[in-house]
Amino acid sequence: MPPSANGPAAPPGGTTQRITQRIVAFAVLVALLALPSGVWARTAPETFADLAEQLLPSVVNISTTQTVEGNAGIELPTLPPGSPFEEFFKEFLDKNQPRAQKRKATSLGSGFIVDDKGHVVTNNHVIQDADEITIILQDETRLPATIVGRDSKTDMAVLKVDPGKAKLPAVKFGDSDAIRVGDWVIAIGNPFGFGGTVTSGIISARGRDINAGPYDDFLQTDAPINRGNSGGPIFDLAGEVIGIATAIFSPSGGSIGIGFAIPANSARPVIQQLIEHGEVKRGWLGVRIQSVNEEIAEALGLKEPVGALVAGVIPGGPAEKAKIKDGDVILEFDGKPITQMRRLPRLVADTEVGKVVPLKVWRDGKEISLKVEVAVLDEHEEKAANTTKAPEKAMGSESIAGLGLSVAGIDDKARERFDLPDDAKGVVITSIDPAGPAADQSLHPGDLIVELGQEEVKSPAELAEKVKVAKESGRKSVLLLVEGQGGLRFVAIRLPAKG
């Protein structure tokens, strides 16, 4: 067709469609690139080979030898109870049983090099009670190791080897706080003695408490780790250590995809102190604390159950000097929010001794600011934190219907019946209504109610009056300070509706 007199012919329909598609595709690409980086899902790497090749020389096998007494011996056959042969076999075995002999037992674990001076990090349980420790490098070089320091509370240990003229490749620590659930990780270790084993997986969870110690804050991973992996590193995709393999959950003893690692940010200060001092000096606040549940939060006027409730202040400790009181809720420590009670001990322990730290505390329905100088924790102070002064004299006995319990004054009869100390104060619980509101609060006869609403209780009549006032004022619950076998603790009891 000849060109139009008014200009060139329009392009074919197919060309116009392709141009439109490209414009739309470009616009979509621009829009996607404008999204926050967190929106993009990280795809699995094609291979971990380059990363493994780079990191393997920094991971070591740890072989320990321990001298133990014992022998295989001869076992007594299984006999029916009262069998006449029982004494015969027992006498025979006593005469012919070989004498106990000393023998050497070996065990294996993992570790990793942290500097060019020959320091190696592992778990304390890997080298505990060992008489001899040998570090085995990737090239099978065997080096005797000595213990620089160890810490049973975090299950960490630092060893030292003399590398001679050899250069030891050290790893770098990453930021474990930045690792997210779902991020890829690789584990390298010595499972069942098969050294230099690399496995991969993701971070399955954070902040796990597995009751291994007072500072539990484990990363959970599904990267297969087994016996022998203990003490080995968990790496992120940047090749930095973000965790130290420590434990597995397994009914069979083998990996089922639930492994736990000490976060690097928790391990790093411990390792540094062990290298510098051979021991760990932890911060100490001098308080006994407990969790804040919904009832306690409501009784204290908190919008949500957060923070650490101070159930006791150790006399002469940093908290007492900082004017922290029983019943305070610590909401923030050194600028870090206390979302859960168990977060506070870890933060305090990791704080430099002597440092003055700002606190935010909830008291009398409002937030106040304090400052505390962190002291050093020692065994005596740690034990004191788990004990309390025994809680004056009161009289009479009364059933407190609003609480679902009965109490009595502290007299000689009560002291004898419940084995109370001479300086006990408050009122003593004599019975608890199984259908009452106190029944679900783990209270027991013999426990002492020392305070209600952070005011002293001196007699059953006074306790009953305080409960009555709380009900008439529309309070939904009351907060008791109770002294039991476990020491002082706060208990919130929901009051029955008025009617």
UniProtKB/TrEMBL annotation:
Q: Where is the PDZ domain?
A: 274-365, 387-485
Biological process (GO), any one: proteolysis
Q: Which reaction does it catalyse?
A: Acts on substrates that are at least partially unfolded. The cleavage site P1 residue is normally between a pair of hydrophobic residues, such as Val-|-Val
> What InterPro entries would the database entry show?
PDZ, PDZ_sf, Pept_S1C_Do, Peptidase_S1_PA, Peptidase_S1C
Span of the secretion signal?
Answer: none
Active site, UniProt feature: 125, 155, 230
Its domain of life reads Bacteria
Q: Which GO terms describe its cellular component?
A: periplasmic space
Q: What class of enzyme is it?
A: hydrolase
**Sample GO molecular function, one term:** serine-type endopeptidase activity
Q: Does the keyword Magnesium apply?
A: no
Q: Which family does it belong to?
A: Belongs to the peptidase S1C family.
Name this polypeptide is given: Probable periplasmic serine endoprotease DegP-like
